Amino acid sequence: MAMKIKVCILGDPSVGKTSLVRHYTEGYFKENYLSTIGVDFKGKTMRVDICGQTKEVIMTIWDIGGQTLWATVRSNYLNGAQGVLLLFDLTNKSSLLHIRDWYMDVTRVLGKTVPISIIGNKCDLDYNPNIEVIAMDLTKQLRPENPNIRFYITSAKTGTNMDQVFEEISMDVLNKIKGSQIP
Ligand code: G3D
Ligand code: MG
Predict the structure, then answer these.
(1) For every one of its 183 residues, what pLDDT tens digit does the chain have, with 9 covering 90 and above?
(2) How far is CA 167 from CA 102, 116, 161, in A?
(3) Ligand nearest to the CA of 11
(4) Distances (CA, A) of 141 to 66, 100, 130
């Protein structure tokens, strides 16, 4: 039987959350569409190899609107999330500087060991390589409390590293569930 997992995607407005989810679940990138209003969820069925077995996983990816009053919907949105993607824009340094705040918000609700990936999006554009170094440093700083934290650069436009992000977060979620089932 397919397992269902819930993954939330968070980050500053305009970093590409909706684009990444849309490209991954619907297979296309659309320029110039409205920012997400409220909460949107998309599903994707995937096959994941775990401990030599192939499992069917239905991943629901929850995408929150950047303009939504975060505090009022935060707990509903994050409730039951098993994995989190924290997105920033490689061409917008302040969106990276806010990642630590997003991380704190998320771990306050879901605990410190929830599978999390930090993602620098829009790698198809020109960006300062320094921003990648800062993001890798942040990931390293957080690793002692969250050993499986990952860092990627992606492009929602070209699809670079997109499959890897979603496959690996689902593997991390399944491994965590499996680990917690061992008596
Ligand atoms: P959000 O959901 O985080 O608010 P969106 O962000 O997905 O709405 O994307 C915001 C803008 O960034 C959109 O442009 C979108 O096309 C663009 N974008 C998203 N991801 C990428 C990417 O990987 N590469 C490039 N080049 N652009 C990206 P518009 O012009 O519609 O505002
Ligand atoms: Mg959006």
Answers:
(1) 788 999 999 999 899 999 999 899 887 666 555 555 566 677 888 888 877 888 889 999 988 765 555 566 666 788 899 999 999 999 999 999 999 999 998 998 899 999 999 999 999 999 999 999 999 999 999 999 999 899 999 999 999 999 999 999 999 999 898 877 655
(2) 22, 13, 10
(3) 1
(4) 26, 10, 17
Residue with token string 């039987």: 1
Q: What is the number of the ligand closest to the CA of 155?
A: 1
Q: Tokens representing 20?
A: 């990444």
CB atoms within 10 A of CB 89: 22
- CA dist 160 and 3 (Å) reads 26
pTM of the model: 0.92
32 C-alpha to center of ligand 1: Å? 8
Centre of ligand 2 from the C-alpha of residue 26, in Å? 15
Phi/psi region, residue 28 (left: phi>0; alpha: psi -120 to 50; beta: rest), is: beta
Residues with CB under 6 A from ligand 1: 13-19, 31-33, 35-36, 66, 121-122, 124-125, 155-157
Residue 66 structure tokens: 């950047």
Class in CATH terms, 3-180: alpha beta
